[in-house]
Amino acid sequence: MKKDLIIGLGEALWDMLPEGKKLGGAPANFAYHAGQFGLNTMAISALGEDKLADETIEALEKNGLKYLMPRVPYATGTVQVTLTGNGIPTYEIKENVAWDNIPFTPEIAEVAANCRAVCFGSLAQRNVVSRQTIQRFLDATPADCMKICDINLRQQFFNKEILEDSFRRCNVLKINDEELVVVSRMFGYQELDDAKVCEQIVKEYNLKMLVLTCGTNGSYVFTADGKRSFQDTPKVEVADTVGAGDSFTGSFCAAILNGKPIEEAHRIAVEVSAYVCTQNGAMPKYPAELVAKVK
What we know:
The model has no long low-confidence stretch (mean pLDDT 93). Helices cover 37% and strands 22% of the residues. It is an alpha/beta fold. It has one domain (5-292): UDP-N-acetylmuramoyl-L-alanine:D-glutamate ligase, CATH 3.40.1190. It has 10 helices and 13 strands. The chain is globular and about 50 Å long.
C-alpha cells in the first residue's frame, strides 16, 4: 500500500431530505470531493447489519468511492434534514448508531500508516468507541500527514475536552463563524476579535493553518507564519448548501497536496464550494474546468 491515501474518517449516514434520502456524512462527502481531483480517497466509518447499509455500499460504489466500513450490530445512521426558505439545512441526528461504534481494526490501522491526509470532525467523537478509534487512527499516521479537523458542531454533540484533543491532534483546523463564537466562549477568547481568536488558536495548538468560513461574508486562511488569505464568497443561485463545506475542505486539501500555494488553493476551494451550492445534494459531478484547476 502506497502512502498516498486521503481519508474521510467518521460518520456514515443518510440525509433524509425533503426530496428523498441521499448519502451524506462529512467523511464520505470529503472523500468524494477530494477524489474528484484524482486523489486516492477512501471513506472510513461503520455500517449496520441492515438494508440501509447495503444501500450505503451501493451508493458509495455508484459514486466511485472506496470505503472501509465494518458492519456492527447497530442501525446505519440517518439524519432528518429540513431546509429553510433560503436553502440552509437543519439536522436531527439519530443517536447510538453504527458510526458511533467504529472499531479500530487491523485494516483501519494499515490505512492510517499509509495516510497522506485525513479529515475528521467532532460529531463522530460523541461516542467513546468511535472517539478512541479516531484518536488511534490519527496517532498512527505518518509524521507528515495532513490532519484536518473540520469541527462540525452539531446539537449537543461536543464538549471542550473533545475539541481540545482534536485541536492538539490536527495540523489544519476548519471552523465557521458560528462555531468560532461557541469556541471563543468555551475557551475564554471572547474578548478577542475573530481574527485574533484564529491567530491565538493557530499559535496555542501549533497548527499549520486555520480556515475560517463566514458564509456570504467570505472566508479566511490563517497560517503559522502570520499570513492571511481572504476570499469573497461568490454570489450564486443556491439550490442547497448540503455538502458545500465538505467540498471546500476536499478541494482545498487536494489543491495543497498538489502543490498549489495557499492563496490559490483557497481561491479554488471557494469556487468549488460555490458550484456545489448551485447543485442538489452533497455529491454532484464537477465540470472539467473545475477539475483542471487542481491538476
